[in-house]
């Protein structure tokens, strides 16, 4: 029964929320915003309204590739969101500028996430490798068991940084969405109905981060128990 529950968390939950965000985006990307402003124009308007002059808005590549790059101070919008005046594009552009506002104001959780990024990358790259090597060594011989156990624990420790990064990402993303909704309402970029639609887009996107965090925690618990059992 526990394996069924684990499978649901690891596979089905992320798949559902990925489907949800794509279907929600596709629906509202076809709804033209009454402002007639492209995502680029929305982003630049919010940046200007907040006195942020050192961040550029550029066109990226790929479907839903939108992000904020704090190292280069770039708001990168996918082609459709960059060029077209849609409710979905407005919401996503405002969200990415929300991260730029966090950066400009020195938002503490964004600083923490940035500090954790190198360790999280190490965890993502090497944790599974160490755990697999450790499991093989443990299974081969009693002599290799000690080394294998150490390798598994090392992998689990590295994995914990990636899990922590996922957890810290949640308040960062929710805060960026809250800032986005406040900005598009305050600046009159959307009307009351469009505000509701934009909120649905950002809420659907936020749930993908919740799902990813749930998966990361479930994986960590599984390998933590493996490490304990190998002692």
Automatic annotation (TrEMBL):
Source domain of life is Bacteria
Q: Which residues cross the membrane?
A: 6-22, 115-138, 150-172, 201-225
Q: What's a Pfam family in this record? A: Zn_peptidase_2
Q: Does the keyword Cell membrane apply?
A: no
Keyword terms: Membrane, Transmembrane, Transmembrane helix
Q: Which PANTHER family match?
A: MEMBRANE PROTEASE YUGP-RELATED
Recorded protein name is: Zinc metallopeptidase
Can you name the source organism? Answer: Macrococcus armenti
Q: What is the lineage of its organism?
A: Bacteria, Bacillati, Bacillota, Bacilli, Bacillales
